[in-house]
Amino acid sequence: MRNIRHVVCLSVIALLVPVGLAAQQELTPLDVVTMKSVGGVYPSPDGTMIAFTRTEPRTPDDAPGSARSTLHMLDESFTEHALASGVGGVSWSPDGASITFLERREGDAGRQLYALPVGGGEATRVFVAERSIRQYRWRPDGGAVAFTATDPPPPERAAARELGFRQRVMDEDWNPIALYIWTADGDATRRVEVPGSVLGLEWSPDGSRLALALAPRSLIDDIYMFKRIHVLDVNTGSVEKLVDNPGKLGQFTWSPDSRSIAYISAADPRDAHAGMLYVADARTGEVTSLTPGFEGMVHSMEWLEPNQLRLRISRGVESRVSDFDLRNRSWDDLPASDMAFGSVHSSGTTVAAVVSGPAHPSEVYTLTGGSWVRRTNSNPWLDDVRLSRQEVYRFEARDGLEIEGILLYPLDFQEGQRYPLVIVVHGGPESHYNNGWMTGYSGWGQLLSRNGYFAWFPNYRSSTGRGVEFAKADHGDLMGGEFEDHIDAIGHFAERGWVDSDRVGVGGGSYGGYAAAWAATRQSDHFAAAVSFVPITHVATTWLTTDIPWEYYYVHYEEKWPHEQWEYMEERSPLTYAPDCRTPLLLLGGASDTRVHPSQPFMLYRAVKTSTDTPVRYVRYPGEGHGNRTNVYRYDYALRALRWFDHYLKPGDHRSDALPPLDLDYGEWGQER
């Protein structure tokens, strides 16, 4: 038997309910797609109040559409107050007198900056911007705002579009993102010329300089791969490149003394994610690597003092907030248990965070007396829902490498009984699972458990969160060792007596959809059902039709173009093995996907349909891109995926069963809870 090591993170909640209480209700797909969650948290400069945003999906009573963002406040007694709806870009004025945000109101030429006084009164526009504001930052003294806005198309092109000529020219038809500075003294706005598009900006604490993330173009590929940190002298207008970071760039921020800039970056051009920490001298550009060899990743940071940073990090599935000493490179973790941190901000004596956990989606927490205390309850009805047991789980793969992930047990699990298993594969693969809330329209965790499944969320090799080397494990070996980790997981759980290896399903989106398509074709013997969402199915043509070709070139394909490795790409494409598909396959995707072209699932659908008798279905969502935003399509996807697994993972061999009915039962949609 392979080495076993697992950590229990959430007990079976049902066992904690005193005998005699009324039976708790179970989570439904409608619950999941209408569930609210906290998006961002913003403590006031003195830490006495906390603004936060809440993501509120549209309900069946609304017209179809994407979720809304609402603004709320926690006062000094942590009483919640609703402030506004449909806003973004939340911040505080430096004096703490107002909450500021971006909103478009009647008569506005795009999103404008508004300020809502915390002492009472209506929100007022801070200044008039000629075009919609994308990002903004207050100068620390409150006397100016730096902001960005997208330039309009050239006059000739704009005039043509007014006449109905709305064609697009690939890679050429884009508009720069420009930098502006508004000053309160004189209510004046000026454009600042910089070499490229501005994709991030931060004032130095002394207000004399702006650190800028500049890319040559505003195209998504440049945003991913070619952002570099520059420094603008606000008085002279001179701009100098400070850091030629190698590849992806994350957050950057000034030290309190304005002498240094800390930033999060990829370690090299082939590094899959910006996750290593660096600091650059703001005058000389000299760079110091602070986390070489770190077997984790840094997500975000804030300065506490000139030699100390507070970091939000992952070490595998574990999410932590840690104070990092720059002098001796030491970590001091803040206490945490069963918590996945989405963001962390400190002001005064207040430390506020967005946190999800095994029993709830993201909420506001504060650090009080050395412990994290939950301050919001966005879904009070969830307190009465019976949830399944969730664990951090680790096992040893065939080559001895430890693989970890999150395991959810069947809701009414009984030792000695075998259950079906669904492996939920994350995308990227530059991503990973933390030990938080594992249930969404495309994740299904508690929904699968409710239906009697084990749900396994693996951080397979090539995931982030375990250092650069681990994240590069797929380079030159797509669906190689990383996929063997999934097969080894099946064998491990079957060996424990938990899982029926003849009733295993797999699902995921994007790169996870690629894994599901590979499972259904090249590895069909191991899987009795597959759900593949926005999947790569033919590697070369995915690359040739995506909006991130340079990211593909550097990060995943060894700096070789498709024509230089066509045979390898054919070998690692599910489409090549379509005639071998014996796994009932549900393919889904958006009709407007620019990341993975809609032709990808369509090609595999046609190939399996015409070369086999295996059940296959392709669902295309109009107007959706690389993931569903519209409430009705999220609900449809969740229902279809769950029904597919239920249909084909019943006891016995059902691989040849007829397709489930074309139409779904939407009866729950529109019914009040």
What are the defining features of this structure?
13 helices, disordered N terminus, 16% helix, nine-stranded mixed β-sheet, Rossmann fold, 37 strands, 673 residues, alpha+beta, single chain, four-stranded antiparallel β-sheet
Q: How much helix is in the residues? A: 10-25%
Mean pLDDT: 94
Which structural class do the helices and strands define? alpha+beta
Q: What's the end-to-end separation, in Å?
A: 47 Å
CATH topology of the domain at 386-648: Rossmann fold
> What does the radius of gyration come to?
25 Å
Number of DSSP helical runs: 13
Q: What about the largest sheet?
A: 9 strands, mixed
Q: Please give the oligomerization state of what you see.
A: single chain
Notes on the structure:
The protein starts with a strand and ends in a 25-residue tail after the last helix. It contains 13 helices and 37 strands. The protein is globular. Among the domains are: 34-126 and 345-380, no CATH class; 386-648, Rossmann fold. The strands form eight sheets. It has a nine-stranded mixed beta sheet with strand order 1-30-31-33-32-34-35-36-37, sandwiched between helices. Strands 2-3-4-5 form a four-stranded antiparallel beta sheet, with no helix packed on it. Helix content is 16%, strand content 35%. It is of the alpha+beta class and 673 residues long.
